[in-house]
Here is the input.
Amino acid sequence: MANVTVERIEAASAPQHRGGLLRRVTNEFAHPDRRLAYLMVTPAIIVILAIAVYPLLYAFVLSFQFVTPNRPSHWVGIDNYINMFGDPDFRTALINTIVFTVIAVSLELVLGMAIAVALNRRFFGRGFARATAIAPWAFPTSVSAVMWALMFQDQVGIMWYLAEKLHIYTGNILGSTGPLMGAAIVVDVWKTTPFMALLLLAGLQVIPQDIYRAAIVDGAGPWQRFWRITLPMVRPALLVALLFRTLDSWRIYDLFWVLGQRNLSSLSTYVYEGVRISQLDFSLGDAAAIFVFVSSMAIAFFFMRVLGTRPTE
Amino acid sequence: MTPGFESTRSKVAFYLLMGLFIFLTLFPLLWVLKLSLISQGELQASPPTILPHSFSLGSYQRVFANSAFVKGIVNSFVIAGFTTAFCLTIGSFAAYALARLNFAIAKGVGSLILAMAFFPAVAIIAPLFLQFTKLGLVNTYWAMILPDTLLSLPLTVYLLVAYFRELPRSIEQAAMVDGATTLQTFFRITLPLSIPGVVTTGLLTFIFAWNEYLFANTFAFDPTTQPATVAIPNFASQFTVDYGAQAAASIVVTLPLVVLVFLFQRRIVSGLTAGATTG
Here is the structure.
């Protein structure tokens, strides 16, 4: 009995890849544990195929048709894409998304790194500081946008008051695009910097302390230690955090929609307006949705192939 | 761990900066809490008062008298609850296969599930809207539970894989030596021993689903099924000048989350950051 079991465990952990394709497939399914493995991942695969892959293919097909809900559609070739790139609203949305992503993610990275380095030592209240850092992450973005809208409110909001007192801006912050973008960046930095710091902190904690001691013995100062040891060693964790944050900002919707009250557009709000609000632009919105998907894949590809980012295996 | 501080002055500077970080992070919550508890008159004061001068629970009364808001909270529990249940069921099977069973396409399946974490939800709202309309699902809980399950699944699976891998393999092997099948081992040994991890995963999945906004704002346009994430912004754009009620509504939804986060702080932080270090 015991021998059989040991064989079973060994067989399960060492699949053999010899022979033709048919032989390999039969071999793969010959072992009960491997058959079980396929059975166990099937529900997850079905969910992904039914709710992500199939709709995505359908969205791709739709982007070459003229569609309005409840009416028959017809093929229009690449007209939707031509109209989309020709639409000044789309170009504004694209520029807004680029500006927002670059500024917000850069600020979050620099501030997050500083906080992570500070948190990476023993001090009184460390647990409290870490719990605080996770709190904004747990807030629903749409609700935190309502909270910040109260704070940016003209005449009565604390942020309006501070902006005026510090001579940053004196008008209605939520009333025009430029200040709104600034406000959105502030909210995003508030909400995601602490989380970024925790991700970076996890990366910092795996750096062996001996390296620092050796560097100190060799006479390296704090800045040298940061640039020569910390940064190169934390690079893998940093790139993963950066990849997630960049893709998150690239598809920003909740914050712009609620804080901006339609005065601040992003690629995703452009899609939403087309698909959900003005039904005549349904196809245009769908084409923009495909654009968001393709550009997101391009960003992920850039991070993984060019920068060598390795998300969890 | 970097040991100690170099001087008393750097220690003081450190605590000042750390205090500033904590203050700035919690400031919106404290400020909105204050807004929810002051009188209507004080809310309209310009410039705003820094410390509260009045006290009133009127804002909370108005918010709880609003049926769309109350229904929104109930709907959020239903949607996030079912999403969590589905994710834990589907996710624990997949996670066990990925963590413990060696099969040829394990890497491919793992990457496919992880890819869903990068997937822009907005890409599929147009086709889903057409399909849900055809199937009569628009304005039902299903229109949110189904896509929320998809979006939350990578988080659930990756946390569970990490927790299952933490278990010493020898315990499972001992069960197999005693004649348990792999499936029995999963149900009787792996799952019960990972309960703390499963609870943390469930909690994080619940928060993730609770916070979803795009699908809900696309597929639910009736207060009967709208979750709180949609109901509160709608409430805010409907009662634009009732700042107190907006503040009270926000506090009702966020304060419980903050309490949960502080209670489960250690587990949440280690769970959420596991992905970044095991890469």
Chain B has 14 helices and no strands. Chain B touches chain A through 111 residues (CB under 8 Å). The radius of gyration of chain B is 23 Å. Residues 1-56 of chain B form one domain.
